[in-house]
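Why do we care about 3D structure at all? Because function follows from shape, and shape follows, mostly, from sequence. That is the central idea of this module. The next example makes it concrete: a single protein chain, its amino acid sequence, and then its structure expressed as tokens.
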Amino acid sequence: MDPDILDCSICYEPLRPPIFQCQSGHVACSSCCSKLLNKCHLCSQSIGYNRCLILEKIIESIKITCSYAKYGCRKAMSYADKDAHEETCIYAPCSCPVPTCSFCGSREMLSAHFINTHTFCETFSYNQIFKVEIHKTDPFRALYAKDGHLFLLLNDSVANVGNALSVACFRPRSLKQEFFLYELTTDKHSSSSLQLKSSITDITEWKGVYPMKVFLLVPPDLCNPAGKIIVNVCIRKINRASIK
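And the structure:
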């Protein structure tokens, strides 16, 4: 049965349990029932108390694949569980941050694509400090971990104020078993340096918007004569199971 056939005539959302029916057999989802004040949209009889169990079983029997099957997900699920699964699917696609590139794929596919296609990427090891140079006008610098994770050192240039630096990781937000922390420290300049320690934000795409709420603000005077910011970076991977 085509799930679209089951759409309620008063909305464009597919029917999902719980489904209610009036005495004439007209059905509506629980969301529509509350909007209609439990009155049937066709005959105005009371609706919202009697479950339509037959239709619920039909819907629950429909098995479909994840929308991210082309990115590697092999899970089959009931029609009613599709949205909940896709909200946490580890194969949710990530988009390449390069403005002229339209690549989209799983986290692993994006990392492989970036390494093979784009050259401006710094390879690093966790828990080790490494130096990154980024021009004050460059929007980001890609950082590639040896376990396959792709990070972005984001650089938001604010006129007459400086540069806001932060770090994001390309991965679905459902990967909760581990998280990342990062430290940014600028090279000393005129006996001054700046430091930031924070957690890394998970993203699946970056289209020029800076979603980070925490950042290291580097004033213009800390750029070198070539207009570059030199920053020491350390990224740590923390397993939640190890935290008690």
